[in-house]
User: Fold Integral membrane protein from Sphaerisporangium rhizosphaerae.
Amino acid sequence: MRSATGSGREHFHLSLNTDGRKHTLENALTLVALACGGVAFISGLVVSAHIVASWAGVVGFVVGMYSQYVSATTAERSVNIVAIVMSFVGVAMGVYHGGFV
Assistant:
């Protein structure tokens, strides 16, 4: 009855390794895709940053798709989907505002 009395304290732990194993390469790919997707999405909102948005979106999309292919856990796959969508939207806005060059 530890949980009923409140004495058993559980700590919040955010991890992509939900299966208990280390997935260093997969986690790194996921975080790179998320970073590129974030850069692409944010810079896609700025008209003069269309080159950054376009290229960061393409890199994030490609890395995200490969990361999705080699992912090992559901948490990695969830973050990969967010990164892929952000990259796609970023590259679409970048192309709309002026393209790759």
